[in-house]
């Protein structure tokens, strides 16, 4: 075991230890720690739990949800903090990132690169955002890119990128380059991407079960078909959970849906 690897203490009576595989070890790193059970019933090690929750934060999430298919149980932060054995540095990162992601999710705000004040975006379909403070200070219209957080370059409106070097949509790149998935229980489905943007809220989701073609989005709680991208209840009008969709496989997505709550 690495000197930096966190491990549970078998004498900790507040933990429920189980003798089964680490169900959050999605990268098969095989951590040496004993397995303990989360409130949702799935087994974790502190390292796999830390890695999974860090991934959620990096994706812009502000809540921690079990990554097992058909579970999507939300874990309270106090449970994550305890079960992941978060270090003081990790706690500081988790808590500050949670606060930032919450602000972005519920208030749709970013920090202006010109004045460092928080700016709210009114039009989710336009990456160019005007900062009123910088506009007054500079005596001209000042706009920045919501994506790369640099002063805007290029024509408007734009939904994919501005003309600054290095400005690109990471989510669109993922949708364009992710590998295809082969369903085990749905025959004759070929060419379906393994990652989709939820048709309702735009969250990027990876289908890992490979059995049922439907998936429940943990963010908006809407279930949709991973193959045809229709809401499940619409897809099931012409097929079943384990049959090919009547409209076939929807092509790779070239835009991220905007959630109108």
UniProtKB/TrEMBL annotation:
A single GO BP: mitophagy
Keywords attached to this entry: Metal-binding, Repeat, Transferase, Ubl conjugation pathway, Zinc, Zinc-finger
Domain RING-type: residue ranges: 20-249
One MF annotation (Gene Ontology) recorded for this entry: ubiquitin protein ligase activity
Entry superkingdom: Eukaryota
Gene3D superfamilies per the UniProt record, alphabetical: 1.20.120.1750
GO cellular component entries: cytoplasm; cytosol; endoplasmic reticulum; Golgi apparatus; ubiquitin ligase complex
Protein name as annotated: RING-type domain-containing protein
């Amino acid at each position: 075991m690495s000197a930096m690897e966190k491990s549970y203490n078998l004498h900790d009576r507040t933990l429920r230890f189980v003798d089964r595989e680490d169900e959050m070890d999605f990268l098969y790193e095989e951590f040496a720690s004993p397995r303990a059970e989360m409130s949702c019933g799935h087994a974790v090690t502190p390292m796999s739990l830390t890695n999974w929750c860090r991934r959620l934060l990096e994706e812009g999430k502000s809540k921690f949800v079990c990554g097992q298919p058909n579970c999507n149980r939300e874990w309270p932060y106090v449970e994550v903090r305890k079960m992941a054995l978060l270090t003081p540095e990790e706690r500081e990162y988790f808590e500050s990132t949670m606060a930032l992601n919450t602000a972005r999710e519920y208030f749709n705000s970013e920090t202006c690169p010109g004045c460092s004040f928080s700016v709210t975006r009114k039009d989710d379909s336009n990456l160019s955002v005007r900062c009123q403070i910088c506009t007054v200070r500079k005596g001209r219209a000042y706009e920045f890119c919501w994506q790369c957080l640099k002063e805007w370059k290029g024509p408007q409106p734009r939904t994919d990128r501005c003309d600054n070097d290095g400005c690109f949509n990471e989510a669109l790149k993922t949708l364009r380059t992710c590998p295809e998935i082969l369903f085990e229980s749905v025959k004759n489905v070929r060419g379906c991407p393994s990652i989709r943007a939820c048709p309702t809220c735009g969250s990027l989701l990876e289908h890992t079960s490979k059995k049922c073609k439907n998936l429940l989005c943990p963010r908006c709680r809407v279930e949709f078909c991973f193959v045809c991208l229709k809401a499940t209840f619409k897809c099931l009008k012409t097929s079943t959970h384990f049959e090919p969709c009547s409209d076939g496989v929807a092509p790779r997505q070239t835009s991220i849906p905007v959630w109108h709550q």
